[in-house]
Amino acid sequence: MAIRLGNSCMNCENLTEKKECKIHMVAVSNNYTCDHFTMKATLKDDRNCVTCSRFHETDCANPQAAAPGMLCTHWAPQNAMA
Ligand code: SF4
Ligand code: SF4
């Protein structure tokens, strides 16, 4: 199974501005995730190569096709830490 960058507390809808989880009521960081992970609606609506952390990077899955408005299953949010 592939390791994915996308499911982190940092892009979860349950994260507050104080970096606390609304579900667990504790401080979390981008190293955490859980089964309650819900992708932020703003990221859902804006997923394309321009908002992908792999755009113009060596780990882009489709460097020949990557462009604004394009999207593939390897998309990862820009605030994800490798
Ligand atoms: S612990 Fe789970 S529910 Fe809470 S912010 Fe992280 S991924 Fe979201
Ligand atoms: S082709 Fe896929 S991996 Fe490459 S920048 Fe676009 S969404 Fe990201």
Runs in which pLDDT lies below 50 for 5 or more consecutive residues are: none
Hey, roughly how much beta strand do the residues contain?
under 5%
The geometry reads as elongated
First and last CA, distance: 17 Å
* Ligand inventory: iron/sulfur cluster
Please state the CA-atom Rg, rounded to the nearest Å.
14 Å
What would the average pLDDT be, to the nearest integer?
88
Report on the structure:
The chain has 82 residues and is mostly loops. It has one helix at 41-45. It is elongated. The model has no long low-confidence stretch (mean pLDDT 88). One iron/sulfur cluster binds at residues 9, 12, 14-15, 21, 23-24, 28, 32-34, 36-37.
Short overview:
The protein is low in regular secondary structure. It has one helix spanning 41-45. The radius of gyration is 14 Å and the shape is elongated.
Topology:
Elements (H helix, E strand, L loop, with lengths): L40 H5 L37
Keywords:
little secondary structure; binds iron/sulfur cluster
